[in-house]
Amino acid sequence: MKADSSSNPFGDLLLALARKDVQFIVAGGVAAVLHGVPRVTLDLDISICMEEANITRFLKLMKKLGLVPRAPVPAETLIDSVARQKIVREKHAVVFTFLDPDDPLRHVDVFLTEELSYERLLEHTGVQMLDRHRIRIVSAEYLLKLKKAIRPPREKDELDIRVLSKIVRDRSD
Question: pTM of the predicted model, to two decimals?
Answer without folding.
Answer: 0.93
